[in-house]
Design a protein that fits this description.
The protein is an alpha+beta fold. It is built from four helices and four strands; from the N terminus they run ααββαββα. Pfam families: Kunitz_BPTI. InterPro entries: Kunitz_BPTI (IPR002223), Kunitz_BPTI_sf (IPR036880), TFPI/VKTCI-like (IPR050098).
Length: about 160
């Protein structure tokens, strides 16, 4: 469950403290972009579970085990956690290519003896970031311009980031 924990601060300090919604949305967005690990299917008794599919923008059902990450026991919990983080961005601020929302995986695997310069999209910063890694399907581009044209959304009056 990714809801903020109940505060253990005295009431006066609770009133003075502010909840950082942007950090909460970032944490949920990171969780909701995670792919299912293979071990969610290795348990004696599989149950109905839900995960957020970034390519579809919705929660989908699967049969598996309770594990941390993008894995929820109720569709409602999945929606409360992920739809807000995903839909929190207006349609105009979301990337054109939904692959840009996929997590960056195995970037430090050696590619035939050496790592190569690649570009990935950082959904929180709305910009392309240089990494050393291997070509992979999804959120992984050979050239910065390719990443920018597929993923970075323009803001009125500003150049591509």
């Amino acid at each position: 469950d990714l809801r903020p924990e109940k505060s253990i601060l005295p009431l006066k300090q609770q009133e003075e403290a502010s909840f950082d919604i942007s950090n909460f949305l970032k944490t949920n967005a990171d969780t909701c972009r995670q792919p299912l690990s293979h071990d969610v299917f290795n348990c004696p008794k599989r149950t109905r579970r839900y995960m957020f599919d970034v390519t579809k923008g919705r929660c989908v059902r699967f049969w598996g085990c309770r594990k941390p990450g993008n894995n929820f026991d109720k569709k409602r919990t999945c929606k409360e956690t992920c739809i807000t983080a995903y839909k929190g961005r207006s349609r105009k601020s979301r990337p054109r290519n939904e692959n840009c929302l996929l997590p960056v995986e195995n970037v430090h695997v050696v590619c035939f003896g050496k790592l190569r310069r690649r570009w990935v999209y950082d959904v929180i910063k709305n910009k392309c970031v240089k990494i050393k890694g291997c070509p992979r399907p999804g959120n992984n581009f050979q050239k910065r311009l390719e990443c920018k044209s597929q993923c970075v959304r323009r803001r009125k009056g500003k150049k591509l980031g």
